[in-house]
Write a structure and sequence with these properties.
Arc Repressor Mutant, subunit A, 9-stranded mixed sheet, about 10% strand, about 400 residues
Length: about 400
């Protein structure tokens, strides 16, 4: 558990700002409590605090941070400070380590030793979408926790691939946990919280803007052993993540793409400049199997990704987040989106698990509480939550207030 009261960490984070360099300050004062007790004279004399930070340090106090603690308690968020046992160990190695992380979901997953980040464009092609989901499933089956940014496109498929493999995944946000950002990804964000964690270093009500995402990207790379880039143009934001990875001493991997298409210029240049090309999960996981033999299973990681099933969960609910205008790439023919009236019970795809089928059979025309779903399906709570994740990803159910779910 944290030794220094968490409100002191929040106070110092508020003064420094997200993404600020923290190693020199912590090296000098050890923790925010000692710094607060040292007083403004030593802050000024230290030489590691800017005038703007000095003004904020004097403007606020730890006692003013209880509102943030209360907000997190009301919403079920965990606050993980720098010296907390669940703080990601690898993040402590970076010079701009966040002093506080706000977590929705399972905070224990943040301490996982084997994390691989998967990043790429939001305007993903069908090729990029399928490759991402299949590789993420393979990586998850081999023992990796998949890390990404919770956005549309490549990020979404990375998270989905991990969950389809019954693995864990972590999304780092460029806004606060309570901000309704990317509403079309709300179901996936809830699913990630049930199968891993949604994380932010920004205050819960902090909005997203152009500057918050590059700040966020250093955490995606910093928490991971390596970063995999899939479908990135020459000016893609995912290249920022790759550059952070290199600066942080992490490995960089990339999936080769069409040399004619500008959508793959960034990823292809990474390979030219030394990133390891990736064709199966083995190309990544073999780098770490010796160090983590008890956590990594390579038995199926070298299977061609063409043999891995692609689950088009978006189209099952009539949604798509791919760039359909790219005619130069092969397009997988998918069944049309279901267009029956809501009152007609839609057929579940064959890829849905038996537990999901049992849970879906419980639903009628009205909302059902998760406790009633557990009782009627005769499944354990973990089985029910996993099944609800599948059904929500496919767009067959949606969450209402008070842990009530209703058929879409």
């Amino acid at each position: 558990m944290s030794g220094c009261p968490v409100e002191y960490w929040i106070w110092l984070q508020r003064a420094l700002g997200a993404g600020a360099r923290t190693d020199e300050i912590l090296g000098l004062f050890t923790n925010p409590y000692n710094m607060y007790e040292a007083g403004s004279g030593e802050w000024r004399a230290s030489g590691v605090i800017t005038p703007a930070q000095f003004a904020k340090l004097r403007q606020h106090s730890p006692s003013q941070c209880y509102d943030i603690k209360k907000h997190c308690e009301q919403h079920g968020y965990d606050i993980i400070a720098y010296d907390d046992e669940y703080y990601p160990p690898r993040l402590r190695d970076i010079s701009s380590a966040p002093l506080v992380l706000y977590v929705q979901g399972d905070k224990q997953v943040l301490a996982s030793p084997v994390m691989i980040s998967v990043v790429g464009t939001r305007q993903a092609s069908r090729y990029g979408v399928e490759v991402t989901q299949k590789l993420s499933r393979q990586l998850s089956q081999a023992g990796a926790v998949i890390v990404s940014g919770g956005a549309l496109g490549i990020d979404s498929e990375a998270h989905a691939g991990a969950m389809l493999a019954k693995g864990k995944t972590v999304a780092f946000l460029g806004c606060g946990l309570s901000v309704d950002y990317l509403r079309e990804n709300a179901a996936l964000r809830r699913a990630i919280a049930r199968n891993g964690a949604v994380v932010s270093e920004f205050f819960p009500d902090a909005p997203a803007n152009r500057s918050t995402f590059p700040i966020r990207n250093r955490l995606i790379s910093g928490v991971s052993l390596g970063t995999l880039v899939i479908e990135a143009g020459e000016k893609s934001g995912s290249l920022i993540t790759a550059n952070f990875a290199l600066e942080q001493g992490r490995d960089v991997f990339a999936v080769p793409g069409d040399v004619i298409s500008s959508s793959y210029t960034g990823a292809n240049k990474l390979i030219r400049d030394g990133a390891k090309p990736v064709f199966t999960a083995m190309d990544i996981m073999s780098e770490y199997a010796f160090e983590y033999p008890d956590l990594i299973n390579l038995s199926r990681s070298n299977e061609p990704i063409s043999s891995v099933e692609y689950v088009n969960y978006r189209n099952m609910s009539g949604k798509s987040h791919t760039n359909e205008k790219r005619k130069t790439e092969p397009v997988r023919v998918e069944p049309p989106a279901c267009k029956e009236p809501v009152s007609v019970k839609r057929e579940l795809p064959e890829s849905v698990s038996d537990d999901a089928k049992k849970v879906y059979a419980v639903f009628g025309d009205s909302a059902v509480h998760v406790d009633d779903i557990k009782r009627l399906s005769e499944l354990s709570l973990p089985q029910v939550l996993a099944a609800l994740t599948e059904l929500e990803m496919y767009g067959f159910i949606t969450l209402e207030s008070g842990k009530n779910y209703i058929k879409v």
